[in-house]
Design a protein that fits this description.
alpha+beta, four-stranded antiparallel β-sheet
Amino acid sequence: MIVVKEYNKEDIADSMPDLWALLNEEQRQFLGDNAEVHVYNKNELIYEEDDLPKNVYCLIKGKVKVFKSGASGRTQIVRFIRQMNMFGYRAAFADENYMTSASAFEESTICSIPIDVIKGLIKDNNDVAILFIQQLASMLGDADLLTVNLTQKHIRARVADSLLAMKDKYGVEEDGVTLSINASREDLANTCSMTTNNAIRTLSALAAEKVIGLEGKKIKILDEKQLQLIASRG
């Protein structure tokens, strides 16, 4: 992890626009004075399961995955973090240690703010409290949906869901079809709660049907409507 020493309030404002917009000038100064910006290397841990939460994080640039160790050492990726989204604060508000881990999926620039700073802003600004309530409520809804999808949907639908979620979080490259994330087959399997072999077979079948295209780690969504149909059928 590298500490970025040269940054200003504009960098902080750009990294968390929803929060910044709710603050007055004094609160913005307080936030900026206590924030730090770090660059994490690919696969470097940002926080780890069972750690004591100390910061709220916001992804400025790059890609981050949140995951949990499961039975037999298997990993379940529970979410990908979208740029300019805050993460890593649920455990702090619940007075718990982290139940998940987070790591950089590629080189990522991340802003961190001590949790006590955020709690101070919440006490002083009701709008900040409402923002975090809304985000936590949205996160809970996503978790409920993930539980249903992983327990009730078939393998093809789970893979389709994951590919569509990756597109929603990170978009596509200039060609308009290639996902802008180099997810390994193991990573994809860990988002879908299946073995890597099953993920490979399912991707190959979707490629044979011309729903997706495969070029190394790159995945192209060639027929998004059909992929959405597969996801919706379960």
